[in-house]
Amino acid sequence: MSDTRADRELDHTDSVAAEQQYVSMLYDKLDELRQYNSRRLAETLRETGGTPQARTERDISTKMHIDKLSQLSAVENGLCFGRLDLDSGERFHIGRLGLFDEENEYTPLLIDWRAPAARPFYLATAASRDGVVRRRHIRTTRRTVTDLEDEVLDLDAAEQSSHLGLAGEATLLAALDERRTGKMGDIVATIQAEQDRIIRSGMNGVLVVQGGPGTGKTAVALHRAAYLLYTYRQQLTKRGVLVVGPNPTFLRYIGQVLPSLGETGVLLSTVGELYPGVVATGRESAEAAELKGRSEMVSVLNNAVRERQQVPKNYIEVTFDREPLHIDKSTCSQARTKARKSRKSHNEARKIFRREMFSALALQVADRLGRDLLDQRDIDDISAELRADTGVCEALEGLWPELEPTTLLDELLSSPERLRKASRKYFDEQQRQALLRESGAEWTPSDAPLLDELAELLGEDDSEQQQAQRQQEREELAYAEGVLHIMEQDEEIIDPERLRVSDVLDADLLAQRHRTDSDMTAAERAAGDRTWTFGHVIIDEAQELSAMAWRVLMRRCPSRSMTVVGDIAQTGSTAGASSWHEVLSPYVARRWRLEELTINYRTPSEIMSRAESLLSAMDVDLSVPNSVRSTGVEPYRLRVAEEELPTRVAEVTAKETGAVDGGRVAVLLPAGELSEIGPSIVERTPEAAFGPQPEGLEAPVMVLTVDQAKGLEFDSVVVVEPQVLLSESSRGLSDVYVALTRSTTRLAVVHTGDLPPELQGLEIEE
Ligand SMILES: Nc1ncnc2c1ncn2[C@@H]1O[C@H](COP(=O)(O)OP(=O)(O)OP(=O)(O)O)[C@@H](O)[C@H]1O
After folding, report:
1. For 193-282+521-598, which CATH superfamily applies?
2. 215 CA distance to ligand 1 centroid (A)?
3. What is the value of pTM for the model shown?
4. Does residue 247 have its Cβ closer than 6 Å to ligand 1?
5. Known binding residues for ATP
6. What does the DSSP 8-state code read for residue 536?
7. What is the number of other CB atoms lying within 10 angstroms of the CB of residue 17?
8. Which is nearest to 758 in space by CA: 625, 599, 624?
């Protein structure tokens, strides 16, 4: 029996060599597939001409090969990361995609991590083995196996297992100890059981994932998107998946995760970007943003629209047929009532208003001419003349104009009078002052949900377009069904994994691809279409969303197939949520399910113990997640004189940059300190990025407000003036809690005045 340490090392070396052989074989297979797809792509691209059907087939074939090639190149790193040895003696390797031996009855060589057969890799424990005797974690750098970690699942192991029940603990800790790069990485190799259950939860209904900082909510949400796309490919390829994040920097931070999992058909967006054509770059006060986020804004906007449906005090006089014509109050009032009663949107109801007005005015003109002498045809002629009369049309336009959301909102927010009329029941004078701004001001993120709401209230008069489009779609579908039938008989198109065309494509999808924008993914089409509805919507940092933003997202997902991810304790925005029930009940009553994450993978216990006292000071019924790591590095504080604050913060930042040696540092400070302290940091560390800019993620230092750092993480965090953060907002405790928990290793606090009691115990740095 090999029992000595030297023997064990020899065994280990042999195992690494054996795994290397297997992993090399997998890479050979991957290369073969790449070559095959490149060859097929080149062949397809070389072909020209032919019938429309042949061209469609070629387009589809090109798209399939391109998709496949990008998937094959995405899985290059960490292609295979695990192995399961079963009671039956069978072994399965687990990796980023499925590979098969087509010369040997399609025996699986590598199992996709999302396939049901891979599940025990994430869930099996010594106490609940699910037929697994050993789980092996295979660590690789490029194509070389560098280390293995074996977990033998027997009763001895059950006794020794860590209190947090982690799988592949050494591999996990090695992943967590890596320096941060400014880009979030995927976690396929080390997904933990509580995370796996969420990732693979069914697609229907609203799933809320509540978890403290660093529990992997974002990671889980993104892996869930990849899992859902794999499992419900057909449904989701058509409608697409939307992932919503709080700001563009955050979206850049997470942007690589799904492509690295071979998935590109997902739209990443902030709520502010969901209104096509509007770039929300403007800034506004927290009060204005909060007021605009309130659900009362629905009524305010409704009132603003109704205000535009006018009746004259007495009458408007126009000249028609060289005679004065009175557009009188009572006629207008009747037409308006009829139009409003239709319950159609403003621009659609406008047609009813105009129709009523033209027929009433035609009768007036007929009376003047002597109605007894006229028949219906004459009256219709008068009506047509009225429609063609500029004066009459202008008058009616003034009474019920065609409206655009952007113009209406701009006019509402820049006119004290309009704003007062629309909001007098909901906002007081001081609140209205906070909302008022210059006409033509830049759009802000909280305007986007208002524009979307207005687009619903105003509607577009596109009935003819819609009818024509429906007809075209019917024709395309019929055509695509024919093409599909022919293609299924064509063995050439079947790819080496024996995927039949109908497995990846149905007539509906084929018809969509055949349209002029056929090479766009659903996500790309959705980005330019305000009314697009998604197959699944994932909302990250969901606690920050206002009531108005929720309305937009619910409209984008009528099926209510949603994953809502967040942490009530981290709510910073005063427009944000204080309970999931409160937020969701208007849409799904109690029909949502809750999953919780309890382990913190990011922040070490040395920092979490400080965060814990902050959380207990907040009035939230939540517990601090358990940290998986301790680093032995104690957080520290430094009290400095007020006039020295900028230079001392710059000094500490430089020191921390050295300490993390190529990692990332964040300086988190109150908004008011940005302009004072930012320049002195940049002077000392010129590569530092100042403010929220997606490119800043590449910089060694980012200087941000807490709000701007939501969802991000850094090797070291320097928190400046936490007592000011506390006093700045009613959610100040939350802000300090978020600030502390951005760190993966080190924490420094620099302050001038007394610290909040929860931070007073920090080690003092001289
Ligand atoms: N199973 C895992 N294996 C390896 N790394 C993990 C795992 N789970 C989470 N992590 C890492 O932990 C860190 C925190 O994850 P993530 O940002 O998803 O947490 P979060 O809950 O969204 O945090 P917050 O709410 O504070 O923004 C990330 O670096 C992530 O890659």
Report:
1. P-loop containing nucleotide triphosphate hydrolases (3.40.50.300)
2. 5
3. 0.87
4. no
5. 211-218
6. E
7. 10
8. 624
